[in-house]
Amino acid sequence: MTRVGHPEVAEPPRPGMFSNARVVGDQFFLSGMHAGSPDGPVGGDDTHAQAIEAFRRMQALTEACGAGVDDIVVVRIYLTDIADKAAVGRARSTVFSGDFPCSTLVEVSALVEPGLTVEVEAQGFIPIPALESIKPASTTPTTPRTPS
């Protein structure tokens, strides 16, 4: 198993506890991506803006695993208010087109940080030629970047 990271996606706050992404054989698994930052959620309380950021982080980690969004087989989306599903759908449509992944959308009572409204998990398969180019993540935690 290889732990994978991306410079534009902050390492987990407790890297000894979990990984943002893992590659096992020709499969990749992403932990839930959200819009959390040290200054509060990217996009404030706007679920669409938070979803755009969550999908951006998901895409960055997918690419760090040697795959593309077309290689994602399944996504799981967690929302704190199911009424925001259309906003998340609009954000999702900026990432996926054509042959869509399987998807589950679930309403939850809360996410890991105050103010977060959406979180996205993904898993998929890595094209065989890309497997050789995967670079393991640093074991040293990085400082989260503030989006510009």
Automatic annotation (TrEMBL):
<dbReference type="GO" id="GO:0019239">
    <property type="term" value="F:deaminase activity"/>
</dbReference>
<dbReference type="GO" id="GO:0005829">
    <property type="term" value="C:cytosol"/>
</dbReference>
<dbReference type="InterPro" id="IPR006175">
    <property type="entry name" value="YjgF/YER057c/UK114"/>
</dbReference>
<dbReference type="InterPro" id="IPR035959">
    <property type="entry name" value="RutC-like_sf"/>
</dbReference>
<dbReference type="Pfam" id="PF01042">
    <property type="entry name" value="Ribonuc_L-PSP"/>
</dbReference>
<protein>
    <submittedName>
        <fullName>Uncharacterized protein</fullName>
    </submittedName>
</protein>
<comment type="similarity">
    <text>Belongs to the RutC family.</text>
</comment>
